[in-house]
Q: What sequence folds into this?
């Protein structure tokens, strides 16, 4: 009998949006494969998701280590046996705040390697697992700044612009094989990624957000939950803003 | 390597090609090349790679995926991963 339980691989699952996505998909009956570098944090998320009834495996991997990522997918391929990988929810990412003149090119390379390079490699490896079943879904994390730009975050915005371009292109390329490709584009979400913002800066940002408040990780996870549901089966190539009207 | 195993691998390869390209087993021969029939287009090539990886439980390097331009070439490439023909 073919199992109907969707299997979702979530990167960046130790914290923030990835953790919230794991809890959301656990609630809605997904089997989970969780990835990040911090094993202890992953174990805690695993326990939280198991308490919701989900089957959860965890892997501590630095996604900028290409050989380690390839080895990880070998392991996943074996572990899945005949089961299909239903969703890749790629939340792992970092932000870099620096003005152009103060951007070290070595730092740019590191950010590119994670936000762009690892994203391409994950899409490549996950789509190969999906192709055989002629179904699957790649869900990436873009950002409001990909479209709008952000002074002092040019390189970070460029990496997210690359993610959006990847979504559009891969939706076209992989659509004929039954694989959907989408992204969510959060605005300002209160996670570790944005924890360094001062209260004053947050107040300034809130004034520009239609809903006049900052977003929470579970609000992004709700959109992820929808895009990973059968209700979204005809949605591909879409970048869904979850930003309280920040981009309006 | 036993003859039996080699025959099994050849049969598995033929079935994998026929499944991915959606053609009859009889159409699969060493000279069959990428883009030489309309069924072996770029989309079918991706499906073929996934099928071969699954059937032989290997993960092909990107260079090998690019190089896999015929059935004969597929055999040579898979041999590098310990699959004998
Ligand atoms: N928060 C926002 O306002 C916002 C807005 C727009 C877009 N986004 C995007 O949303 C995604 C998630 O952001 P977040 O706010 O949840 O960030 P976060 O709280 O800082 O979490 C980032 C996650 O990525 C993982 N990670 C970082 N580097 C990694 C690496 N080299 N290898 C493996 N995992 C790595 C971290 O886990 P470990 O440290 O355990 O490895 C963590 O789980 C990112 O792509 C971000 O760009 C966020």
A:
């Amino acid at each position: 009998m073919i199992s109907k339980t969707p299997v979702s691989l979530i990167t960046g699952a130790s914290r923030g949006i990835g953790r919230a996505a794991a809890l959301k998909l656990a609630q809605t009956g997904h089997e989970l494969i969780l990835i990040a570098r911090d094993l202890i944090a992953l174990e805690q998320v695993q326990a939280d998701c198991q308490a919701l009834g989900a089957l959860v495996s965890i892997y501590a991997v630095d996604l900028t280590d290409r050989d380690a990522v390839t080895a990880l997918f070998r392991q996943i391929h074996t572990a899945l046996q005949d089961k299909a990988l239903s969703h890749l929810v790629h939340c792992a990412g970092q932000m870099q705040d620096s003005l152009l003149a103060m951007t070290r090119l070595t730092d740019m390379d590191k950010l590119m390697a994670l936000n762009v390079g690892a994203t391409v490699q994950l899409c490549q490896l996950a789509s190969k697992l999906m192709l055989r079943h002629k179904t699957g879904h790649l869900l990436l994390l873009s950002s409001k700044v990909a479209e709008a730009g952000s002074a002092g975050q040019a390189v970070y915005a460029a990496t997210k612009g690359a993610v959006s371009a990847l979504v559009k292109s891969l939706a076209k390329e992989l659509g004929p094989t039954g694989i959907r490709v989408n992204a969510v584009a959060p605005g300002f979400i209160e996670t570790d990624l944005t924890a360094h913002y001062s209260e004053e800066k947050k107040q300034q940002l809130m004034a520009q957000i239609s809903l006049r408040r900052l977003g929470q990780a579970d609000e992004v996870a709700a959109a992820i939950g929808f895009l990973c549901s059968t209700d979204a089966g005809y949605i591909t190539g879409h970048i869904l803003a979850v930003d309280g009207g920040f981009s309006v | 390597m036993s003859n039996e195993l080699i025959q099994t691998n050849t049969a598995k390869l033929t079935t994998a090609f026929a499944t991915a390209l959606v053609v009859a087993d009889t159409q699969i021969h060493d000279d069959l090349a990428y883009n030489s029939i309309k069924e072996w287009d770029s989309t079918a090539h991706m499906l073929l790679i996934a099928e071969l990886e699954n059937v032989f439980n290997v993960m092909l390097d990107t260079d090998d995926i690019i190089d896999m331009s015929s059935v004969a070439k597929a055999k040579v490439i898979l041999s590098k991963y310990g699959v004998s023909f």
